[in-house]
């Protein structure tokens, strides 16, 4: 059922495909089957790759919490009970490595963790004059490691020290020949990021191209657009086509990983041909038993909350269940806009001696009244002044309703210690009914014209993969070999009916009479895509893993059927070469050459060679960099170049693939603990984006659309020593000027914003309740945050307050 413009519900036209129901989806899927010490050239120990564990240690006395942690982890921890008597901890919740977990428990206690020959001990924090650590009888518990677990969180807990690199699996950051950032669940919770778009705005090489109040996430990574058409562009647990299509909420995310640069060899070709980088959402799994409840308030009057429940069962706790649910409803900070969002995510897993299997089921709904839109800017117009950041050019009677369903079944079987087989199958559907459209700015005064359109979208996707992983040695060289087959399919069905155009203004929006635009008479197939391929990779480890070489090759077949246009069927091979060299124990020098893949263009009907189909486009990245692990602070400096071909119609009216955008840049990132009680993450990215061989002297050599020369994001948090448990947070964000057209005549000014926040574990009703508050855009600055490749402009977010209270039971 759908609603009319007046709010009444009416029967919907039947789409060409039957929608996937949750029970049918589950049955279908179930039936589908299953660094190192020393700074000399002495031999280095294997890089740290032990996965972290999930903990649920409640707030309370520090001594028992430390003992519980040592017991759960199986470490030797020595301390004097008298030294911690009377001290408390805010508890530990989430996935941590050993040292990070201990230091999180010790936060605000004037102690930090130290190492001894036997294990761990407590030492005074740097501001103390002398250490008080005293050895005691050790408590030792042996715990089996989970082979499928994630890399540890790095010091500070905000960023992980490794990530899942598709074909290569879990890789420690010091062994990765790429620039990777992996945001943790702790980071998501502390920043109160409700969507992937809100979270990734904190990364210096990522820019969100969806304004506040819009209905879909989209990004630029290293200066190239990703997700403008939003068809399965973000990977879920390493697979495209499974994640929700338009917006990804973060309640079910354990990690959100960003790989900088093309990733076709690692993940396969992205469905929407993104080449600047890849985004992967890693789902939460059941660890320690957990019952967590959250209440939150956002914007003008938007209230909500969520639950996170995890349990493990079985004689060896081999069965796990985790459920995340949330609901928000109310007015936002955008004028006459309201939003309702509901999410349910169920994660099941089995961790046997040889067999590991997971099943993820997600359903989320989002309804928005008066959704924000990104206005088109006429080709010859100068950029008008940015409107007040609360202005809404949409009408009260315009709306958007979406329903997203996703499911993914994975299985891995260890045939031998050195050989495992894996297979996965996932399905997803997106069901959208909406009445709105994008306004067009017609003059410098900001007057607009909009044709509201009733549209129904039905998007269906499925993805599969299977393969084998093996490890072995040949002489003095170690190998980690992966062979993978993968396939992705989508079908896009649509129907639309236009209303009557109305006029307004971005600075002084005008209210117009409601229009009752009927639903389209039919929803028909508009396009279908099928991507299939085979990939092989080998990681060679030499000289005690001081030198690692990663080789990969993917043969990809691309089939596309656009109704009313020529079908497309072609293939290409994309290689990957990565090298990591460790001249010192905690220094990695790396380089990579990797390619991205995009569907080739079809010559337009107006060209002399109309309907000619071109081979897939290959984007190419070359990158070098250095990573330094300072102990509790990680820094990465890289230089890169990405080139992407593009098609154009030449002066003789012949369509050819001769254009190119070339982005050269330098990226600096840092994360970890800069000092005791001071944690940071962020950095800066400088990009020189040039258009080449555009076929037009007026645009050749110009700067690419929507690419600022400098992006800066620096996030920090400080534990206030005078009030144990209180943490102050903040973020500074800056973008240099950017252009909205290829002629570079439409320029958006540079902008800077500031976020501030705090969190505090308070004792309420016998429970420790973590209170969080975040104030975004403190100065309430109005600005254009960016431009998209479509020629649309994004308004910056208004000042908004978000507060939440979280408690464990």
UniProtKB/TrEMBL annotation:
Major localization listed first in the record, in broad terms: membrane
KW Transport (keyword) present: yes
Cell compartment(s), UniProt: Cell outer membrane
Keyword match DNA damage: no
Motif (TonB C-terminal box): 792-809
Its membrane topology: Multi-pass membrane protein
Residue ranges constituting the Secretin/TonB short N-terminal domain according to the UniProt record: 75-125
InterPro entries: Beta-barrel_TonB, Beta-barrel_TonB_sf, Plug_dom, Plug_dom_sf, Secretin/TonB_short_N, TonB-dep_rcpt-like, TonB_rcpt_CS, TonB_sidphr_rcpt
Domain of life, per lineage: Bacteria
Gene3D superfamilies xref list: 3.55.50.30, TonB-dependent receptor, beta-barrel domain, TonB-dependent receptor, plug domain
Entry keyword set: Cell outer membrane, Ion transport, Iron, Iron transport, Membrane, Receptor, Signal, TonB box, Transmembrane, Transmembrane beta strand, Transport
Protein name (Swiss-Prot/TrEMBL): TonB-dependent receptor
Provenance organism: Janthinobacterium fluminis
């Amino acid at each position: 059922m759908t609603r009319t413009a007046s709010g009444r519900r009416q029967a919907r036209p039947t789409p060409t495909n039957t929608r996937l129901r949750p029970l049918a989806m589950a049955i279908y899927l179930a039936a589908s089957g299953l660094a190192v010490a020393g700074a000399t050239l002495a031999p280095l120990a294997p890089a740290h790759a032990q996965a972290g564990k999930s903990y649920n240690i409640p707030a309370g006395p520090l001594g028992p919490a430390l003992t519980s942690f040592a017991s759960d982890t199986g470490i030797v921890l020595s301390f004097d009970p008298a030294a911690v008597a009377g001290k408390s901890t805010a508890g530990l919740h989430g996935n941590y490595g050993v040292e990070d977990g201990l230091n999180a428990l010790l936060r605000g206690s004037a102690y930090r963790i130290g190492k001894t020959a036997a294990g761990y001990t407590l030492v005074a924090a740097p501001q103390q004059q002398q250490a008080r650590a005293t050895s005691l009888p050790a408590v030792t518990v042996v715990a089996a490691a989970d082979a499928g677990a994630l890399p540890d969180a790095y010091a500070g807990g905000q960023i992980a020290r490794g990530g899942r690199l598709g074909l290569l699996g879990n890789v420690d950051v010091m062994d990765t020949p790429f620039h990777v950032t992996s945001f943790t669940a702790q980071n998501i919770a502390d920043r109160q990021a409700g969507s992937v778009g809100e979270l990734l705005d904190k990364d210096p090489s990522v820019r969100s191209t969806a304004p506040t109040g819009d209905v879909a996430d989209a990004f630029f990574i290293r200066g190239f657009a990703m997700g403008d058409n939003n068809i399965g562009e973000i990977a879920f647990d390493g697979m495209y086509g499974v994640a929700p299509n338009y917006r990804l909420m973060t309640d079910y995310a354990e990690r959100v990983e960003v790989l900088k640069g093309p990733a076709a060899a690692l993940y396969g070709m992205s469905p929407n041909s993104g080449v600047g980088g890849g985004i992967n959402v890693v789902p939460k799994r059941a660890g320690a038993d957990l019952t967590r409840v959250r209440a939150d308030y956002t914007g003008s009057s938007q209230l909500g909350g969520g639950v996170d429940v995890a349990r493990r069962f079985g004689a060896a706790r081999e069965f796990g269940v985790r459920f995340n649910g949330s609901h928000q409803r109310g007015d936002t900070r955008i004028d006459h806009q309201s939003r309702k969002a509901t999410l349910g995510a169920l994660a099941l897993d089995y961790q046997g001696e040889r067999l590991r299997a997971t099943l993820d089921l997600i359903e989320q709904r989002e309804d928005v009244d008066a959704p924000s839109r990104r206005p088109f800017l006429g080709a010859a117009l100068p950029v008008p002044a940015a409107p007040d950041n609360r202005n809404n050019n949409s009408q009260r009677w315009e709306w958007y309703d979406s329903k997203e369903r996703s499911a993914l079944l994975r299985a891995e079987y260890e045939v031998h210690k050195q050989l495992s087989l894996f297979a996965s199958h996932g399905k997803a559907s997106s069901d959208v009914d909406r009445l709105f459209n994008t306004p067009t700015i017609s003059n410098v005064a900001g007057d607009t014209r909009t044709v509201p359109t009733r549209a129904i979208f039905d998007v269906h996707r499925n993805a599969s993969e299977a393969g084998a992983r093996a490890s072995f040695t040949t002489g003095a060289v170690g190998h980690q070999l992966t062979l993978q087959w993968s396939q992705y399919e989508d079908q896009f069905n649509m129907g639309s009916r236009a209303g009557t155009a109305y006029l307004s203004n971005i600075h002084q929006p005008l209210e117009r009479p409601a229009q009752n635009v009927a639903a389209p008479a039919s929803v028909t197939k508009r396009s279908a895509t099928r991507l299939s391929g085979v990939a092989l990779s080998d990681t060679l480890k030499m000289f005690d893993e001081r030198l690692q070489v990663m080789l990969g090759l993917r043969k990809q077949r691309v089939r596309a059927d656009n109704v009313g246009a020529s079908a497309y069927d072609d293939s290409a091979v994309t290689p990957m070469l990565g090298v990591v060299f460790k001249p010192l124990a905690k220094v990695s020098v790396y380089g990579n050459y990797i390619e991205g893949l995009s569907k080739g263009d079809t010559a337009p009907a107006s060209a002399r060679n109309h309907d000619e189909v071109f081979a897939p486009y290959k984007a190419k990245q070359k990158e070098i960099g250095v990573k330094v692990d300072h102990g509790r602070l990680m820094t990465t400096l890289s230089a890169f170049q990405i080139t992407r071909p593009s098609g154009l119609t030449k002066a003789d009216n012949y369509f050819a693939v001769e254009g190119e955008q070339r982005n050269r840049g330098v990226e600096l990132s840092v994360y970890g603990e800069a000092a005791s009680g001071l944690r940071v993450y962020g950095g800066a990215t400088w990009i020189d984006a040039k258009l080449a061989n555009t076929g037009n002297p007026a645009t050749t050599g110009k700067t690419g659309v929507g690419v600022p020369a400098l992006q800066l994001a620096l996030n920090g948090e400080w534990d206030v020593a005078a009030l144990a448990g209180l943490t102050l947070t903040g973020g500074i964000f800056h973008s240099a000027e950017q252009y909205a057209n290829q002629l570079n005549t439409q320029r958006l000014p540079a902008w800077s914003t500031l976020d501030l926040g705090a969190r505090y574990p308070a004792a309420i009703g016998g429970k420790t309740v973590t209170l969080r508050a975040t104030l975004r855009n403190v100065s309430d600055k109005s600005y254009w945050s960016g431009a998209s490749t479509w020629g649309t402009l994004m308004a910056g977010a208004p000042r908004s307050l978000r507060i939440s209270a979280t408690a464990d039971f």
